[in-house]
Amino acid sequence: MPVFHEKQEELEHYETMMGVPRGRLAVTMDMITDAMALVGQHGVYCQSQRWPDKPVMDIQMIMKSLTDAKELIQSVMEELKKPTLS
Question: Where are the beta strands (DSSP E) in 1-86?
C-alpha cells in the first residue's frame, strides 16, 4: 500500500496524537483539502460559458463530492471521539 509509505511521517504523527483510526482520518482530511485546493485553482482557469463567475460543471461536481466526503469524515472523527459506554 503505497500511501502508507508516502504518508508515513504524517500518519505516525497523527496516529500518535489521536489514535490509529482518527489519525488516519486526519491524514485523509489533509489529502482531501489539498485536492480541493488543486481543483479550486483549476476552476479559476476553466470558467463556465453560461455562468462566467463559476467554474465548469465538472469542477463544481468534483468540489461538491470532495466537500461532502470531508463532511462525512469529520462526522466519523467526532463519533470516534465520543466515549464508549461499557
Answer: none
The helix or strand, by DSSP H or E, that contains position 19, with its residue range, turns out to be none
Helix, coil or strand: residue 47: strand
Q: Domain ranges for the chain, please list them.
A: 2-76
C-alpha span between 15 and 17 (Å, rounded)? 5
Instruction: Walk along the chain (86 residues) and give the pLDDT tens digit of each residue.
Output: 799 999 999 999 999 999 999 999 999 999 999 999 999 888 888 887 887 788 888 999 999 999 999 999 999 999 988 877 65
Q: Where do we find the cell 483510526?
A: 21
The whole-model pTM stands at 0.83
Q: Name the phi and psi angles at 47, rounded to 5.
A: -85, 145
Indicate the DSSP class of residue 83.
Answer: P
Q: CA-to-CA distance for 70 and 60, rounded, in angstroms?
A: 15
